[in-house]
Structures are given as structure tokens and as C-alpha cells.
UniProtKB/TrEMBL annotation:
It comes from the Bacteria. Residues 1-28, 55-79 are annotated as: Disordered. It comes from Saccharothrix syringae (Nocardiopsis syringae). This is Uncharacterized protein.
Length: 79
């Protein structure tokens, strides 16, 4: 087993995680994935390809992937 390949792959994993958390990466594509935008959680509906969450007043809100990219998003809730 080549240990150098394992060591090299770990920084690559961290880069991917950082890209998603900064909003600069691509949105997840797995159904039921959760991302955060402007303090609200959004869940990917797999069969429709849209992100569903609530607005500031608790009303249901559906966003396309493009809309979510424009708003900014992260994999973790911003404090």
C-alpha cells in the first residue's frame, strides 16, 4: 500500500470541504442534502431538483440551484 497517496488525498478532501463551506464550490447533488443560506436550512428534493426551506417568516420557500448559488450558501450554519 502506498502511504504517500493516502497522505496526498487528505489535503484534497479538505480543499473540497472548504470550497463547499465558502459557497464557491458546487452544490451537493445527493437527495436530502442540507445547506445553509442566510441563516436558513435548505434541503434538496431529489425528484424535483429544487432546494426547499423557509423564509424569515416561516413560509415555505423553494429555490433552484442557481438561485441558491447567487444567494450564497455553506454546508454549516453560520453563527
Amino acid at each position: 500500500m502506498n502511504t504517500s497517496a493516502e497522505v496526498e488525498s487528505e489535503p484534497a478532501k479538505r480543499r473540497v470541504a472548504r470550497a463547499g463551506s465558502s459557497g464557491a464550490g458546487t452544490l451537493p447533488t445527493t437527495p436530502c442534502s442540507v445547506v445553509w443560506s442566510k441563516g436558513h436550512a435548505y434541503v434538496l428534493e431529489g425528484f424535483r431538483g429544487r432546494w426547499v426551506g423557509v423564509d424569515d417568516r416561516g413560509r415555505p420557500q423553494a429555490l433552484s440551484g442557481d438561485e441558491l448559488q447567487r444567494r450564497g450558501w455553506s454546508r454549516t450554519r453560520a453563527s
